[in-house]
Amino acid sequence: MSCGEPHETDCSEVLDHLYEFLDREMPDSDCTKFEVHFGECSPCLEKYGLEQAVKKLVKRCCGHDDVPADLRAKVMGRIELIRAGEPVPDRDVREDPRPATQE
Predict the structure, then answer these.
(1) pLDDT digit string (tens) for 44-75?
(2) What is the pLDDT of residues 68-100, one digit of tens each?
(3) Residue 88 falls within a domain, yes or no?
(4) Which of 11, 30, 61, 64 lies in disulfide reach of 26, CB 3.0 to 4.6 Å?
(5) How far apart are CA 47 and CA 15, in angstroms?
(6) DSSP 17
């Protein structure tokens, strides 16, 4: 998505890193660049607002459940693979490849 207007920070960069901005997982200088961009670009501001609303809704509806430690470890492991540019397996390599049996 792009508004078609030139910006110091390109729309594609903003949208590629939108969740990092929402979660405040980027340097303050990058946050400032994104805030300036949102002030100039209504399509990106609209997308930001939508994603922010979804995040708040999920937090309100699901924010009270504890995440199982093994699930958290699996998710974090996949995130690290993605960040390192390594291929991510279709399934957890630690899973038992045999089909589950019914008791």
Answers:
(1) 999 999 999 999 998 888 767 788 899 989 99
(2) 899 989 999 998 988 888 888 877 655 544 455
(3) no
(4) 30
(5) 8
(6) T
